[in-house]
Amino acid sequence: MLRFDDQIAVGLSGGKDSVTLLNILYKLEDAFPRTRLIAVTVDEGIAKYRDEALRIAEKSCQNLGIEQVVVSFRELFGYDLDEIVERLRERKTAHSATSPCSYCGVLRRRALNIAAMNCGATKLATAHNLDDENQTLLLNILHGDLFRMGRARSQPSSKRARFAQRIKPFCEILEKETTFYAFLKGIEFQNTPCPYSPAAMRNDARSMLNKMEERHPGLQYTLLRSAERLKSLMINASNREGLRTCRMCNEPSAHEICQPCKILLELK
Ligand code: SF4
Q1: Which residues contact 156 (CB under 8 A, 6 or more apart)?
Q2: In the chain, at which end, N or C, are there fewer CB atoms within 10 A of the end residue's CB?
Q3: Residues 21, 170: contact at Cβ < 8 Å?
Q4: Ligand 1 mean position to 3 CA, how many Å?
C-alpha cells in the first residue's frame, strides 16, 4: 500500500481505529526517513460530540509530534452537519428520512481528499477495518449498487482531477483486534457514539454480521475473500469509464455532477 517516500495523510477522527492507525504508522515511519505523516481531521459540526473527538485527535498529534490539519464542513461546504440535518427535517423532503450518515459520509470523503491534496499527500490512509469493509459490501448489495465497489478503486481519467490515492491498512483486521490493541497500549480515544449513528442502516449490517461471526467463526474473512473476487470484476467493469471530474467543482466524480455537489444543490 505504501512506498518508501510517500507523503501520508492519515484521516484522524479521534475514534479508536484512527488514533490506533496513527500510532502504528508513526512507529513504522521511523524506518522510512523520506516518508512524512500528516494527520487530517474533519470537523463535521456535530454539537456535544465532535468537540471531545477533536480534543483527543489534537492531543494524539501533539504527543507524537505529528502535524495536524483540521478542516470543517462549514468552511468547505457552508453548513455544519447539524444544520444540514435540520434543513432536511424542516423541508420534509423525500430525503429527510435518509440517515444523516449518508450526507456525512459523502461530504467527509470529499473533505478528506481536499485536505490531503492541500497537504501535498500522495496517499490518504483511513482506518476502515475488516468489519467496516464487510458492512460496506453488504450495504452496497442492499442498495443495489455493486459497481460502487469497483469505483472505489478507480483512478480519475482526467489529469485535472485532484485525487489522493486512498489506502486502508486495517482492511484485513477485525475491529475487536484494533480495539484490543488500543486498550493494551493505553491509547486514548473517544468512546462516546455519534448521536446520529442509531439511524444508520450500517448498524443493522453490523449486528447481523456480528451475530453470524459468533455462530460461524471466520465468516468475516471468507466474506472479505469473496469481496476481493467481486471487486476485481467490478473494477474491470467500472474502469471502462474511469473516474471523471465533476462539471461543477472539478473534483473526481463517477457521474457528471458529483455527490457532494448534488447534496449542496439540494440544500440551497
Ligand atoms: Fe457522520 Fe454518521 Fe459517523 Fe456520525 S455516525 S460521524 S453522522 S457518519
Answers
A1: 163, 242, 243, 244, 245, 252
A2: C
A3: yes
A4: 31
Q: What average pLDDT score do residues 34-54 get?
A: 95
Nearest in space to 190 (alpha carbons), one of 75, 73, 55, 91: 55
What does the alpha-carbon distance between residue 113 and residue 115 come to, in Å, rounded to a whole number? 5
The H-or-E segment that residue 71 falls in is strand 67-72
Q: For ligand 1, atom 6, which residue shows the shortest CA distance?
A: 194
Ligand 1 pocket member 194 (CB < 6 A): yes
To 10 degrees, what angle do helices 130-142 and 175-184 make?
Answer: 150
Please tell me the total number of residues recorded for the chain in this structure: 268
The strand pairing partners of 72, in sequence order, are 43
What contacts 24+ positions apart, CB below 8 Å, involve 181-185?
181/20, 182/16, 182/19, 182/20, 185/20, 185/23
